[in-house]
Amino acid sequence: MKKPMVEANRLSKLLNHVLADAERFPVDVQSLALEYSAQCFPEEPIVKIEEVDICGFEGVLTRHPTKSKWKIGYHNNLRSEGRIRFTLAHEFGHYLLHRALKSSFECTQQDMHQWDGSEQEIEVAADTFASYLLMPLDDFRLQLGTQPISIDLLMHLSSRYGVSPMAAALKWAEIERKRMVVVAARDGFVLWAKSSPSAFRSGVYLASRKQRIEVPARSLLNEALASDEARTGTLPANRWFAREPAGMMITEHVHVCRGYYPYVLGLLVLPDAAPRWEEPDGELLVPVHRVLLERLQT
């Protein structure tokens, strides 16, 4: 099976070469999928990308009965340009990585822990491909530079790559050197969380798939839905993470994500600490967006 990061990075290098900086982002996935497949795989190109009424599915990749052409479809109720872009990139990932395996891919918001091993593997791969294609690490790191963590920086990343603030925050958590935890919350409870590598190694993570986690009483995440403004504040770190020492403060950067399923997105930033080297938690290894979307819609 082809490696998703390798394929995404190869396409990113191609786009860097052929496009001027002003045209580089956000990635025009639709044009890329149509043109690239026609040039590189003329015997079985992607010939159509369209809105479709596919009850129960967010995106599909299907082969024509003649087995010579492919089509990508995305659900006609998707309204966010960022979500549409990620869905198209996900299906394009299936085309590049998995089309030899089967003739149809129907991608749902089903909890990935309910899938069998092979299905989970290919869905993780398609999500990984989409993330690295839309937000290549070299450019992402360049945008971060040495700037402090803030909602303004998060919104810049979201705008530059044409993705949701959630997708940008989760990508950020993958590479952030500081101890940072991305949290999505609604109605006083954590929907989903992802720790940066240094945070996780120090034992700072929220196992929200294993237990119902309440947002601390004085956290800004409990107050943010009443306002559309980004907010920043501090809280004793052990209100969120019980094993952090007394007197240590955590900084909360909070953004409200409106829409049909509103939620609060938080960037929790802690001071540096020595690693505890705990065992990996399986829920931290899921794709960057699919489980959170499933949680938001339940």
Automatic annotation (TrEMBL):
UniProt cross-references to InterPro entries, sorted A to Z: IrrE_HExxH, Rad_response_metalloprotease
IrrE N-terminal-like domain mapped to chain residues: 69-171
Protein name, UniProt field: IrrE N-terminal-like domain-containing protein
